[in-house]
Amino acid sequence: MTTQTPPLVSLQDPKDVSIDVIESELSSIWRSYSDNDDGIVATRATSFTFIVYEPEPTQHLLAALGFYTGPIDGIAGPRTVAAIKSAQKAYEMEVTGKSNQDFIHKLQTEFEQAKANGQLNEEQKVAAGSYSPDLEGTGLADSIAASNPCRIITLCPTVGEDKGVKAQVSAYCPINKRSQNTLICCEYITLRGTAAALERVGGIISELTISGLPTFVWWKASPEPEYGLFKRLASQGDTLVVDSSNFSDPEAQLLQLGQMLEQNIPLADLNWARLSPWQELTAAAFDPPERRSAVLEIDRVTIDYEKGNATQALMFLGWVASRLQWKPVSYEQEGGDYDIRRVKFLNDEQKTIEAELAGVPLADWGDVLGDLISIKLSSTNLQADCCTVLCSGTTGCMRMEASGGAQACRIEQVTPLGDQKTEHLIEKQLQRWGPDALYQESINVTMGILKLAENN
C-alpha cells in the first residue's frame, strides 16, 4: 500500500538561524502570512509537537560493515572512535577517528556493494535492518505534516567534531489542508550536533515544544537511559516511541523497556504494533463457542521468526502467556542454526506449558528483521480442539504442518499488510497517546522470561 503525499506550499525553505532565536524566527514567518496581498492566511501547527531523535548513519554503517558492535545511539564513545579508525585504515583513508561526509559516503558505497554481493553476516544484517535512509529527511515528515499540522523537531546527533549545535527552521503547508484561503501549516526545526552538544541544549529543546499540546518523542536509536537528553525527553513527552526491531542487543534492551514501563514512562513500540494481525487472528481462532474452552488446553507453543532479532517472538509469547495467566519458570537457549530458545510456564492449575522459539535463517531478509513467520498452538491432549497454525507464507505453513501431531489444526494465513510499514505505524501512533495496558501486561511477562535468561 502506497500513500501519496500531497504537494506542499513552502512558506520558508530551510534557513540557518541561531538556536536562541528559533521561536522568534518562526513567529516572523506567520506574521508575514497573516496579512498579505494574496489574501492567503497561514496558521501555525495546532495538533502536537513531534520530536525525532535520528542519529546520522555513521554508526549504522560501521555496524553493518562489521567494524562496530556497540549501540546505535549517536553517542561518539570510545568504541565508535575505534571503529571509525579501523574503517579509515581498512579503506586507506586518513585515520582521524572523526566522521565527515566523505567518510559517510565511503561507508555507504561499501555497504551497498557488500549487500549486493551477499557478504553481510547475520549480525551485520541486524545493523543493516536498522539503517533506514529513506526515512531520514523530509519524506516521512512531509507525510506526517500532510495529515497532522504539527511542529516537528528533528535532533540529528553526529559523531564528528563537537562544534556546538546548528539550527535550521522551515515551514510548509499541505495543499489539501487549504480551506477558504487558509493554510494550516507544519513547522520544522532541525538541530545538528554531537550527542554531548545536544544534551547541553536540552533545556532549549524542551522549551521549543508547544505548550498545552501533546508531545511525541520518536527515539530512532537504541534506548540510552543514562543519557541526559534521553532522560529529559522520556520524562517530559506524552509518549516515547521506539522500535525494538532495530535493537542491537534485543533481550537486554527489551528488559530496559520493561524497566521504563515500571517507572511509568509512557512507552510505545512500533514492533509491538506489527504483531496486531497475529494477535487478532489468534483471538479469532478461539472465538467460535465450540473452541472457547479449548484454549485452556494449549500446552505447546512453537514460534518461527526471521533469525536476527527475537523481539517479536518474545513479545508475542509474552502476550499469549499474559492472556492465559501463564507464569514463566524456566528458560534455555540452545543456539544452533535456528538459535533455539525453550521456555516453560506453569498455569494456575500448575500445568506445564512448553514453548519453542526458532530463528529461521533466510537468504533474503525483509524490511523488518525478526518478523514472525509462523506460530503453532497445540496440546498434548489429543482430544482437545485447540491446534491452530498461523503463518505469513506457504513455507511457514508447511513447516508447522510437517512438525507432526495427530490433531487436526486450524490453518490461518497472515497476509502481509502495507500498513505495518514503519511510516504507517508512526502515523497511527501519532493519533493516540498514553499507556497501553495490554502492552504493559505482555511486557511484564516477557521481562519475567528474560530475567530467567539472565540467571542461567
From TrEMBL:
Residues 141-258 form the Glucose-6-phosphate dehydrogenase assembly protein OpcA N-terminal domain. SUPFAM superfamilies: PGBD-like (SSF47090). Residues 59-102 form the Peptidoglycan binding-like domain. Residues 266-442 form the Glucose-6-phosphate dehydrogenase assembly protein OpcA C-terminal domain. NCBIfam families: OpcA. This is OxPPCycle protein.
